[in-house]
Amino acid sequence: MSAAAPWAEDRTIAPGFADPVGTTQAVFRTVLDALANPGLAVRPPAAIAPVPALAAVALTLCDLDTPVWLDESVAARWAGYLKFHCGCPLVAAPQEAAFAMVDGFARLPPLARFFPGEPAFPDTAATVVVDVDGPPAGPDVSVRLTGPGVPEAEPRVLALGPAAFWEQVQANGAAFPLGVDLLLVGRAGWIGLPRTVAVEIA
Predict the structure, then answer these.
(1) Is 67 a member of any domain?
(2) Which domain holds residue 24?
(3) DSSP state at residue 4
(4) Is it the case that residue 13 has pLDDT exceeding 90?
């Protein structure tokens, strides 16, 4: 995310999407496309500019009934903006959130701290959105992804994120049908990691 605060010098809240209906539809399709094709970098809609990716996802998916957790970096810059535009309640603990917005792997809490859903209602699990252009948490490693949405003859290979992150993704997938879904957003594209993905660390 940009280091700039989402308000002008007079402290007024910055605007949301220039075309709220068209842009939210485009963002929604992009998120669905990313989650349906794990490991495939999907180009984000150009229309979200100048709204950063984390805020764009929140503007699209969060509302009055969506508890959201923000890491300290995101909260310092975007809490007021998201409350104004989305009306979403902000929660203090990761496990209370339906959506989480995180600025970089270095600020990502353990995935086990997020709500994994319930056996009768696995669809209530949290979705964790990470800006991969934020602070890193170690050197990137290569991983091989397989599972639903990945062509069986063409496993997808990524070189992104530290080994500790991918070890948590492996544990998250082992808990299926419970477990969180992840969306990695960045300038190079948005990548979905649903709980169904299988990860092999190189």
Answers:
(1) yes
(2) 20-201
(3) S
(4) no
Q: Pick the closest to residue 116 from 60, 174, 180 (CA basis).
A: 180
Q: Tell me: the pLDDT tens digits for 60-102?
A: 999 999 999 999 999 999 999 999 999 999 999 999 999 999 9
User: Which of 111, 121, 129, 96 has its CA nearest to residue 174?
Assistant: 111
Reduced to 3 states (helix: H, G, I; strand: E, B; else coil), residue 102 is: strand
Q: Which of 172, 111, 162, 157 is nearest to 135 (CA)?
A: 162
Return the number of other C-beta atoms located less than 10 Å from residue 177's C-beta.
Answer: 12
Q: Is residue 132 part of a domain?
A: yes
Query: What letter would DSSP give residue 137?
Result: S
Q: pTM higher than 0.90, yes or no?
A: yes
In a domain, 73, yes or no: yes
49 in a domain, yes or no? yes
Domain count, the chain: 1
What is the length of the chain? 202
Kindly state the helix (H) or strand (E) to which residue 23 belongs, with its residue range.
helix 20-36
What CATH number does residue 176 fall under? 3.40.50.11310
